[in-house]
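Hi U.,

Before I forget, here's the chain from the pilot set. I'm dumping it here mostly so it's searchable later in email.
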Amino acid sequence: MSATAAARPLMRLVTMSGAPILRQLHLEERLLRRTADNWCVINDGTAPPTIVMGVSGRVSELVEIEPVLRDRVPVVRRFSGGGTVIVDQGTVFVTFICNKSAVAGLQPFPRDIMSWSGQLYGKVFDRFGEFHLRENDYAFSHRKFGGNAQSITKNRWVHHTSFLWDYDVKNMDYLKIPKRAPEYRLERNHTDFLCRMKEYMPSRSVFTDGVITALGEQFTVQPTDLETVLSSDEEFLPSTKLLSQQDLAEIISSKGSSSLRLQKVEEA
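Structure:
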C-alpha cells in the first residue's frame, strides 16, 4: 500500500440489492448515530413501490392521499430533510455517512456537502451526459434524475440520493407538484421535469462501479459485511416511520372537516 493510500480515510462499503427502503433507512440512521465509521451504502432497487417523505414534509401538500390509500402504497417519513419521492425497482440508492473530518476542508453545511457530492458525481457522469448540480438536484441538462436529502448531527452527516435509473409514469401520479419547487422546474409536470438514467448510461453496474471508483480517489474503500460489523442493538429506535393507513385516513378526514368549517364560516 502506498503512503497516499494509507493516508486516506477508511470508508466502509455496503452493497444491497432490492432491500426495502424502510429497512435501508433504518440501517442508515443506525450507522449515522451508532457507529463512528464512514460508510457508503448502495441499494440497487427496492420493492414494493414506496413514497418517501422528508422529516418536515406535510402529507396533505405532497401526496395524493386518496389514490395512495386505495392502492395501499406505503408512505415512509424518513429521518432526513429534503423532498418527497416515489421509489421502486427502477431506483438506485447511494448514501454517504461521514464524520465531519472525513473530507479535508469540507464544512458540515448542506451547501458544502452538495458541492462536494456534485463534484464526486461529476466524475461518474462526465462521459455520459451534460451533468449538472441544479439547486439541490442532479440533472442531465435541465431534467432531474437524482433527488437528495441530508441530515447533519454534531459530529457526522449523511447525504443520500435516489437515482432514477427508470421510473413508472403512473407512479408519479401519487405525488403532488410541491408548492416549493426548484426554480429550474419552471412548473413542468413530473414527466417533463424528470429523465431516466438508462437513456444516458449502458448499465446500472457501470453507474455503481463508477461511484466506487470515484470514492476510491478520496477514501480507502473497504467492502463490509454488515453482519460482522453490527452487533445486535435492540435499544436503537429509528425515527424513520411507516405511516399507517389510519394516519393517512385521518389526514383526509381532518381536511374534510376543515373544508366544512370554512364553508360554514363563508355561509355565515
